[in-house]
Amino acid sequence: MLGVLMFLVGAILNWAYNVIHLVFLVGVWPLILMYPIIIFLLTLEYPQRLFLFIHKFNFPFFADFDQPEVFGFSPGRCRNFKIKTPDNVSLGMWHILPSVLYRQITDAQERHRKVPHGSLVTKGIQRRALVERPVFLYFHGNAGNRAAPTRIATYRNVSERLNCNVVAVDYRGFGDSEGSPTEADLAIDARAAYNWIVDQGVPHTNIVLLGHSLGTGVAARLARDLGKDGIFPRGLVLQAPYMSIPEAAFEYRAFQVVNLFYPLSFFPKIEEYLKNCILDRFNTRSHIPHLNIPILMIHGAKDREIPVKNSQQLYATAVAAHLGPTKLSSAPEISLTGEEAFRDFVDKTEEVGGGFELEGRRYVSERNKSVRVADGEVVGPPKAMFVELTHAHHNSVQAHDLTYDSIEDFLEIPDQASVTGVGASNNSLSQLAE
């Protein structure tokens, strides 16, 4: 009997070995042989940009941007339109109305029952909303377009929780926008979208730059470019930001699991060479000390795609800049195991408020009052906040209440229940549309 059992065990082990060997030969060896080829291709311009922007993955596929109702918006609440950049590239954009304003208009229509639901949301009303409530200019991450579900969730939260306008833009190469993306061209797109908002009569102090993931680099670059021209929007909000693309690329985990570049960590010189080959660098860390507007960084502690240490480092850089133009080097380098250095560094800034233990931790820092701002001097933002969400992942930052509570408090979003001029009669609605 024992001999039979031993024979069966041996047969099973032999079968398992053959299966594993076959899988290794068929599946693993080709990957090992192809790995150097893949890495080489990523040093070339076209495949590198395909990998970074993933703009060919245009999800939701075959989206009809002219009908936002397909994505759950009420009639007239979201307007699709296009603008032209200075280099004559067409960009697709959405404007989502503040929820309170939209409800006021539609409630008045329903009471009079004379016009279809949402039909009185004219361009005049949209312009009035832009002027009277803050505007969040949203820059999305890589892959997909402005109609992706997680992005629509952000629009809804900003327009409903904060009662603010949202203007969402698809960079060139994304959605229904023309062209192909590069860092320099995305900077042109961002400025064109910003200028469109200003052209509607919106003051700079009523515009908030909001970026997520890849879009944080676009937003930070825009803030830096605006500052060079003496233009200072209300604030900059970075959700799941990174220090720079070369640093983020070598720690990025696709699908929160696979780190394509991990094997290269054993070959530092090759890794450094490949970092130098990256064309679009989006160096947010280099922009932070030069920004003269409030900066809010929000990051999920469970983010495995862009680890939270990126926001820790960016916040530390902003705080160090507050200490004065000669103290920037005092910001600690935050490594994967260097959280203690960060905690020690921000102890002086203290946590803001209380009762957030289950949601996350908030830190705030304001510029030293003794620091004098002179032309060309690096003194950092007037104030900075870092929010670490305990339970958030890379694409769930927009789903947390603490995100919007922090934006509202930090940027002092005015609490206004309505937009002036919206009354209960069709006459007043007509006047508003003029």
How is this structure best summarized?
This protein has 434 residues and is an alpha/beta fold. It contains 14 helices and nine strands.
Your description of this structure?
This is AB hydrolase-1 domain-containing protein. It comes from Chytriomyces confervae. One of its GO terms (molecular function) is phosphatidylcholine lysophospholipase activity. One of its GO terms (biological process) is monoacylglycerol catabolic process. InterPro entries: AB_hydrolase_1, AB_hydrolase_fold. By secondary structure, the protein is an alpha/beta fold. The chain has 2 domains: 40 residues; 343 residues, Rossmann fold. Helices cover 41% and strands 13% of the residues. The chain contains 14 helices and 9 strands. Strands 1-2-4-3-5-6-7-9-8 form a 9-stranded mixed β-sheet, sandwiched between helices. α7 links the parallel β5 and β6. α6 packs across α7 and α11 runs parallel beside α12. The longest helix has 40 residues. The protein is globular, with a radius of gyration of 25 Å. The C terminus is likely disordered.
Layout of SSEs?
Elements: H1 2-41, H2 45-53, E1 78-84, E2 90-96, H3 99-112, H4 123-132, E3 135-139, H5 149-161, E4 165-169, H6 183-199, E5 207-212, H7 214-228, E6 235-239, H8 245-249, H9 268-277, H10 284-287, E7 295-300, H11 309-322, H12 339-346, E8 360-366, E9 383-389, H13 401-410, H14 426-433
Parallel strand pairs: 3-4, 3-5, 5-6, 6-7, 7-9
Antiparallel strand pairs: 1-2, 2-4, 8-9
Helix pairs in contact: 6-7, 11-12
Pfam families: Abhydrolase_1 (PF00561)
Domain AB hydrolase-1: 134-261
InterPro entries: AB_hydrolase_1, AB_hydrolase_fold
